[in-house]
Design goal:
about 60% helix, endonuclease activity, about 120 residues, 7 helices, mainly alpha, Endonuclease-reverse transcriptase
Length: about 120
């Protein structure tokens, strides 16, 4: 969606063979920023939920009884956070409880740098 928006801003038709790299250069960006911003904000919100006792935290940690339906499993919000952070669930929960460590994780989200 982000690249489509950039192409519309530059009036580049979908028929033209213009690479995403050239579109980003014409807009003045190195890489798509919208997805990174969304991921970073989700991570910050997850850290907030883990640190404070609230109804959202209870819902997030809750389990549902019963059978799972047919077909591929649906993506979960926690699964998405886990994929973004590239941590195991228990490690992610412990890290989110420490605000300074969690800020380090979210600050280096798009850098490719692993926090220490």
């Amino acid at each position: 969606m982000e690249m489509w928006t950039y192409r519309r801003m530059q009036r580049i038709s979908w028929k033209e063979k213009v690479t995403n790299k050239k579109v980003l250069e014409s807009v003045g960006l190195q890489r798509p920023e919208l997805l990174l911003t969304i991921q970073r904000r989700k991570m910050i919100y997850y850290g907030h939920l883990r640190r404070y006792d609230s109804i959202q935290k209870r819902i997030l940690e809750g389990k549902i009884d019963g059978k799972r339906g047919r077909g591929r499993r649906r993506q979960t919000w926690l699964g998405n956070i886990q994929e973004t952070s590239q941590m195991k669930m228990c490690e992610m929960c412990e890290t989110a409880l420490d605000r300074r460590r969690w800020r380090t994780v979210t600050a280096h989200l798009g850098d490719g740098m692993a926090p220490s």
